[in-house]
Amino acid sequence: MAWRAALRSKAVIPALLSCSSHGRLCASPTFITQRNNSTSPKIKVDYDQTTGVAVMHMQSPPVNSLSLDFLTELCISLEKLEMDKGCRGLIITSNQPKVFSAGLDILEMYGKSPEHCGEFWKVVQEMWLKLYGSNMVTIAAINGSSPAGGCLLSLTCDYRIMADNPLYSIGLNETQLGIVAPFWFKETMVNTVGHRNTEVALQLGLLYKPAEALKIGLVDQLVPEDQVFSVATQTMTKWLTIPEHARQITKSMMRNPTIDKLRTNREADIQNFVSFITKESIQKSLRMYMEMLKQRKA
Ligand SMILES: CCCCC/C=C\C/C=C\CCC/C=C/C(=O)SCCNC(=O)CCNC(=O)[C@H](O)C(C)(C)COP(=O)(O)OP(=O)(O)OC[C@H]1O[C@@H](n2cnc3c(N)ncnc32)[C@H](O)[C@@H]1OP(=O)(O)O
To answer: Which Pfam family would be a valid example here (predicted)?
Structure first.
């Protein structure tokens, strides 16, 4: 698709990157904001101009796995919203039953060429840079399970509201797949729940039930499932009463050290990922994990 090619082209990526933390000041003309509601196959964006709040509904069956196409679309949607001066808040939620997001699409990392893996990782980085550094108030309305990359997506937001359903879980469970959360996943978690909680959670690849997640601060609030979205909307209204420049500067101050670390090491991080994920032993672990998922289903 043209937009996917555009996003990946060398000419466009720097423009996108340069806007991830100060989007309103350095808007690239490449993606002039579309102010009306837009729909797309994997993500539906509803933007209410009267409130200045956009809602991103992830709708990629069966489990909103973060594939290359999904992430590319997510980045483009974010870019458009970020460049719109009127858009001040973003709620991210899922239209899939029981799942917020199953995390990175394992099939993008299994049996793929190093070039493909590198391209995939670049867009994973891009998603994180854009969301973690967003000028908007971002709220995750977590209405289902949210493992690994799904948890990361939630952690990039400013506030997390999760459905109080013990069938759901959330956490960075990478080690259970035989893989390792990279330093920026780790730091995003440390910045949220502290060093010790992260150390235990990452080594054991823990997936927390909502009540446990609340206890360690991995989520900020639990609400009955049917209220996740309405509470997210109310919370957004509250956050939007804070003077914007003061809130944005504060957010940057808290997050920029971590963001800068990845921004200055992007290429090395891609090389690290590619050499790690294409190892035979790691590929074997991914295959076994996928087989386990299928057996669990049977
Ligand atoms: C020096 C060393 C440095 C190393 C560091 C360098 C680099 C770092 C290296 C690697 C970092 C990688 C980071 C990876 C992050 C990730 O996000 S990996 C993905 C982890 N995700 C999971 O573990 C979740 C797995 N899924 C589930 O647990 C469940 O599917 C569920 C989300 C709880 C939903 O359950 P349910 O509703 O019962 O659905 P099913 O299990 O039946 O699934 C439906 C189909 O979807 C397929 N699927 C599920 N998850 C994924 C996925 N993440 N990717 C692709 N496909 C997925 C599942 O297999 C089913 O498929 P079929 O219908 O059977 O075909």
So the answer is: ECH_1
